[in-house]
Design a protein that fits this description.
binds 6-O-phosphono-beta-D-glucopyranose, Rossmann fold, binds magnesium ion, alpha/beta, single chain, 6-stranded parallel β-sheet, globular
Length: 215
């Protein structure tokens, strides 16, 4: 079976923005007086901004009950993150991604973005590939974060295809769970020992052909 549509997560699948998220969270942790390691950062992948802050605070053993203080901290992190991504260039599209997207279009497959990030449009504009997508569902259009399937179900709806006709590309465990909960096929991008729930796992898009999405 070949899906009619592919839905791509953005951070860690199309671009390696995980490093910028990490830099900004690490900077916030430092201000709060503790170290935040790369291993801790794994837990934030695919997770919404506020949920990420909760994890960061628990790593630092810090309890904050005031919601407005939490908002301020998340805003601070986001301001630094936006500074980093505002310098991004087309070169930061991960290897093989653009060719793979073009190949899908040539084969009549619809393509969409399904991301938790509220900075999706800023990134897509920076790297200049916004127009290739038939639909873009991002953090500004959803109310429930991954592993809830909302983001992918909305993308399918906008593409006018049924969930079972979609294949999702994800680098995060929460995203794989979301795709499964949506009733979609899912291809993990990254380490197979972490992305266990995926139907297939690839290390990169380089050299991948249409057979990748045949199940
Ligand atoms: C996801 C990232 O794509 O978006 C997470 O993997 C991030 O690390 C989340 O927290 C929300 O992003 P933003 O840009 O809205 O803070
Ligand atoms: Mg991701």
């Amino acid at each position: 079976m070949r899906p009619k549509a592919c839905i791509f997560d953005l951070d860690g699948v199309i671009v390696d923005t995980a490093k910028y998220h990490y830099l900004a969270w690490k900077r916030l942790a430092k201000e709060l007086g503790f170290e935040f390691t790369e291993k801790d950062n794994e837990r934030l992948k695919g997770v919404s901004r506020m949920a990420s802050l909760e994890i960061l605070l628990s790593v630092g053993g810090i309890q904050i009950d005031d919601a407005s203080v939490k908002e301020q901290l998340a805003d601070k992190k986001n301001t630094w993150y936006v500074e980093y991504i505002s310098q991004m260039t087309k070169d930061e599209i991960l290897p093989g991604v653009e060719d793979f997207l073009k190949m899908l279009k040539e084969n009549g497959i619809k393509i969409a973005i399904g991301s938790a990030s509220k900075n999706t449009m800023t990134i897509l504009n920076r790297i200049g590939i916004k127009d290739i997508f038939d639909a873009i569902i991002d953090g500004t259009k959803i109310t429930k974060a991954k592993p809830d399937p909302e983001v992918f179900l909305k993308a399918a709806q906008e593409l006018n295809v049924r969930p079972e006709e979609c294949c999702v590309f994800e680098d995060a465990v929460a995203g794989i769970e979301a795709a499964k909960a949506a009733g979609m096929k899912v291809i993990g991008v990254g380490d197979p020992s972490i992305l266990k729930g995926a139907d297939k796992v690839i290390q990169s898009f380089v050299g991948q052909g249409i057979e990748l999405i045949e199940f």
